[in-house]
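Look at a sample.

——
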Amino acid sequence: MNHDITVVLNGFKRPEYLEEQVKAILNQTIKPKEIWLWVNYDPQATFPDKLEGVDVIIKSSRNFKYHSRFCIAMLCKTPFVAFFDDDTIPGNKWFENCLNTAKEYNYNCIVGGVGIVFTGKDYNQHTRFGWPTPSNDIKQVDFVGHAWFLPRNIINSMWIEPPLTLDNGEDMQLSFFAQKYYNTVTVCPPHPVNDKSMWSSLKAWEYGANEKASSWGSVIPANVFLGQRTWLLNECINKGWKLLNI
């Protein structure tokens, strides 16, 4: 089977980590075929027009929010695509870990860096897996974030019907629509305590837990952001999203 991968990076508020991120991706035990950079406009962030190791740079004069990188990925020609948030530096066996995990589900799965399992209908009611809770096991989850790895064709499911909102929650909608139309499961691969080379993110707390994070209020107030996600969670449930514990 062809395991070629196109990486789609999201350039937004953290250009200072881009070179380190690209280097980590090029250092993978399974090399990507191409790296694309989608620069989603922010007036205070400047990204280069060229960068060694990056094959395609697409810059927007308007910010198209969270779904845009998944639109860009529709143009990829490889069977697999991988996405990283702009604070995410993977260990060098991350793609190897993703492919080994995906094989367990005959490649009909979304693999991600942080897995969420809801325990209630408020967005804040959930359990996290992945780098926040290291484990040697694969965990089936409701949705994933921070890093995604999946067959490119699964992204088609996001556009079979109009997204419930373009203002938030691309991560939840991806897992919901993939489950609804392709019977796709979402999983978080092993993040062993003693082998961080398999991890999706090596510096998550250092690079991501700050005022540049959407969940910390960088785009809209944090309480509004989280309220939108609770609304979306319940909309998805009402429209048929089958959650593990609800």
